Amino acid sequence: MKYVVCSVIFVAAAMVGFAQPLAYSKEENWLAKPGKTSFADSISKPLVGKFLKDTSVDVFFIYPTIYTDKDKPNGWFASVTDDAFIQKIQGSTLLFQASAFNQYQLYIPLYRQVHLSAYFINERALQIRLFDTAYADVRAAFEYYLQHYNRNKPFIIASHSQGATHAKRLLKELIDTTLLKNRLVAAYLIGMDVPVDLCKNLPPCAEPASTGCIISWRTYKEGFTPENILRETKPMIVTNPLTWSASVPSIARESNHGSILRNFNKLVPKVASATVAGNVLHTVKPHFKGSIFLRTKNYHIADINFYYLSIKQNVQQRVAAFWKR
């Protein structure tokens, strides 16, 4: 009977994904790590020489949903052997997001992420299986990283969008109630709903130098909050990515000294403001050349880009505070 039940589970898993996580002993299943160069190592020209490499701290980065093709050419999961798709990851999220953390040792696993549409399907059981499969890769990568690469160093979890979906679970299952929480500098879970009470021992970061805590925000135009967020029944973590302080929830765009938009090698000042508004972060309409044509009120794709320099500086500030602690 046990054999029959296990077989049924295996077949069900095979229908929507893969039964086993990727093998992270294989070099090809890492997009970036020390000794393996990637677009995440890139430094915007205005910042060259301003952030020195520090190998005493690691950053485990989980990238957002890149698999968005309407026809789902690989089914529910992104291919991990498609060179064109991997280059797409490199030239987008690794260059424009992961690089904000690259003054420290970056570890970025390739994982079989779920197609964007999985967030919107009504079949809850299927949705759970889909995200379980993607998360299994992330968890396996993190466990391999801990066993083979970390060497008891402090670390940062950094993520965006689907990456933050998986990072939430990683914090709860492997960090929050274990000794690993003592080595966590901070967790940047950006672009996703993160409940204030997600963890027992990892609170929201209240100040710029707080450590062992969680950071999150979702960015929208001032005055706009999506209906689905208005229906949320729990308070979510909303960190101001310019002040980093719960006691200073709003600041003008003039205090934003560096966004990175389409041109990675150009740092653009005064693009976006930051105001904590309920469960979201608001900004005035972004200010840059051509922004007069910007019509969207949802700035999810730019959650990191708008506050790029501020993030880079804050990571450094929290690492310094961690060592003092």
Describe the fold and architecture.
The chain is an alpha/beta fold and 325 residues long. The chain has one domain. It is built from 6 helices and 10 strands. It has helices at residues 2-16, 83-96, 124-150, 162-175, 227-230, 308-324; strands spanning 30-32, 58-62, 105-109, 155-160, 184-190, 214-215, 219-221, 250-251, 274-277, 280-283. A 6-stranded mixed beta sheet has the order 1-3-2-4-5-6, sandwiched between helices. Helix 3 packs across helix 4. The longest helix has 27 residues, at 124-150. It is globular. The relative contact order is 0.13. The model is unreliable at 1-17 (pLDDT under 50).
- Give the CA-based shape: globular
Oligomerization category of the chains in this entry: single chain
Structural class: alpha/beta
Spans where pLDDT lies below 50 across 5 or more residues: 1-17
Radius of gyration, in Å, reads: 19 Å
Mean pLDDT: 94
The counted number of beta strands is 10
Strand order of the largest sheet: 1-3-2-4-5-6
Helices and strands, in order, run as: HEEHEHEHEEEHEEEH
Count the domains: 1
Fraction of helical residues: 25-40%
Number of helices: 6
The end-to-end span amounts to: 54 Å
Strand content: 5-15%
Largest sheet: 6 strands, mixed
Q: In terms of topology, how is this protein built?
A:
Elements: H1 2-16, E1 30-32, E2 58-62, H2 83-96, E3 105-109, H3 124-150, E4 155-160, H4 162-175, E5 184-190, E6 214-215, E7 219-221, H5 227-230, E8 250-251, E9 274-277, E10 280-283, H6 308-324
Parallel strand pairs: 2-3, 2-4, 4-5, 5-6, 7-10
Antiparallel strand pairs: 1-3, 8-9, 9-10
